[in-house]
Amino acid sequence: MAKKDPPVSRIELLQGTLDLLILQTLAWGQRHGYGIAQMIRAGSRDVLQVDTGSLYPALHRLERQGAIAAEWDVSENSQRVRVYRLTAAGRKQLAAERSKWERTADAIAALLVRPAENES
Fold first, then answer.
1. Measured at the alpha carbon of residue 67, what is the angle toward residues 58 and 65, in degrees to the nearest 5?
2. Which residue from 26, 28, 78, 97 lies 20 to 30 Å from 19 (Cα-Cα)?
3. What is the pLDDT of residue 87?
4. pLDDT tens digits for 14-41?
5. Topology (CATH level 3) of domain 12-111
6. How far is 110 from 92, CA to CA, in rounded Å?
């Protein structure tokens, strides 16, 4: 019998989802923070919008964890920007986050398809 993962808390779900979105965006290529936010917004057809108050703490957390690396660069309009890229550890974390997301999405879909049976 397969071991069940513990339930996901609200904070873990929200933080994990943002981490997943950032890591997936960087899997397509390196970007600066604003570019990451724009890619998430455009990729979700304007449904998901990540504000800077959530994005930059997540980027710093992922960088501390070694999932992403950053370096200073100069943007198209000659401004200094911090450019982020996915690391090998970040690719592994992305795979784990995707798996966790798929399990969560399957659980939600199961609830939407049919009501849970009474366990009494």
1. 70
2. 78
3. 98
4. 667 899 999 999 999 999 999 999 999 9
5. Arc Repressor Mutant, subunit A (1.10.10)
6. 27
SS3 content of the chain, % helix, strand, coil (to 5): 60, 15, 30
CA dihedral 16, 88, 53, 49 (to 10 degrees): -70
* Collapsed DSSP state (helix, strand, coil) of residue 114: coil
Domain ranges of the chain: 12-111
Torsion angles phi and psi, residue 83, rounded to 5: -105, 130
- The answer to whether the CB of 68 falls within 8 A of the CB of 85 is yes
Confidence of residue 90 (pLDDT cuts 50, 70, 90): very high
Dihedral sign for Cα 100, 101, 102, 103, please: positive
- pTM comes to 0.81
**Two tokens at 105?**
């999405």
